């Protein structure tokens, strides 16, 4: 499912226009993005939790030369599915 498909489904289920649905979906994604940018955790009860995860620096290998390279520490977005979502998917 693409973002456009999601906008279409939201428009049908919520009886919204395509433009209003696009703005609503964009607002939800924007709010999640802004919260993660600040380092906050976003909990959607019954769906899951969006959070920022920290990855440690580590040593990797250049696949062409085999030389060791240093991969720096970074933050990545993460998602953990809630119980209700896991149950529905099974």
UniProtKB/TrEMBL annotation:
Residues 55-75 are annotated as: Disordered. Keywords: DNA condensation, DNA-binding. PANTHER family: DNA-BINDING PROTEIN HU, DNA-BINDING PROTEIN HU-BETA. GO terms for molecular function: DNA binding; structural constituent of chromatin. Coiled coil: none annotated. Gene3D superfamilies: IHF-like DNA-binding proteins. SUPFAM superfamilies: IHF-like DNA-binding proteins. This is DNA-binding protein. GO terms for cellular component: cytosol. InterPro entries: Hist_DNA-bd, Histone-like_DNA-bd_CS, IHF-like_DNA-bd_dom_sf. GO terms for biological process: chromosome condensation. Pfam families: Bac_DNA_binding. Belongs to the bacterial histone-like protein family. It comes from the Bacteria.
